[in-house]
Write a structure and sequence with these properties.
The structure is a single chain. This protein has 155 residues and is mainly alpha-helical. It is built from seven helices and three strands, in the order ααααβαβααβ. The chain has two domains: 65 residues, 434 Repressor (Amino-terminal Domain) (Orthogonal Bundle), CATH 1.10.260.40; 71 residues, Arc Repressor Mutant, subunit A. Helix 2 packs across helix 3. The longest helix has 18 residues. The two termini are 35 Å apart.
Length: 155
């Protein structure tokens, strides 16, 4: 089993790559605060990262600090409310127009955050979709578009 430093390092590398930053990019972005060699050592789990430095690195990556930390093994992270919607990802190509594009981007961002690119379905909280519908401001159209790719409500 990987040490905690190694798991943190894997998470740091994953986020950096998702942001499409090289080690040198981070060094430039941080104006030399994070040297490429030191950041590489953090990512390999060879060095520990202090909380203040972790906080500043999160700022450069534009993510909450918690995103840079790996989940604890066995930690409960699932939505316990049971209010979920399952989306058939193979049907996303049927969506068109601005509402479809927004829904596709939203689901893609969830896949990136979860690092889940292999699934045929994606389960999301119904409350998140409700919020997205309100932000779009076109609830009827959004509901129709969602029904095109919905597999089922999960009670």
């Amino acid at each position: 089993m990987a040490s905690y430093n190694e798991r943190v390092g894997e998470r740091l590398r994953s986020i950096r790559r998702q942001r499409e930053f090289s080690l040198q990019d981070v060094q430039s972005l941080s104006e030399g605060e994070f040297k490429a060699a030191v950041l590489g050592a953090y990512e390999r789990g060879e060095r520990s990262l202090s909380v203040p430095r972790l906080h500043r690195l999160a700022g450069y990556y534009g993510v909450p600090v918690i995103q840079l930390l790996p989940p604890e093994p066995g930690a409960v992270t699932a939505d316990q409310s049971g209010n979920k919607v399952t989306i058939d990802l193979s049907r996303l190509d049927q969506l068109d127009g601005p509402v479809g594009e927004i829904l596709e981007r939203f689901l893609a961002s969830i896949q990136v955050e979860r690092q889940d690119f292999n699934g045929k379905v994606l389960t999301v909280r119904a409350d998140d979709l409700l919020l997205l519908s309100r932000l779009i401001g076109d609830g009827d159209t959004f509901s129709e578009r969602l029904d095109e790719v919905r597999v089922a409500n999960r009670p």
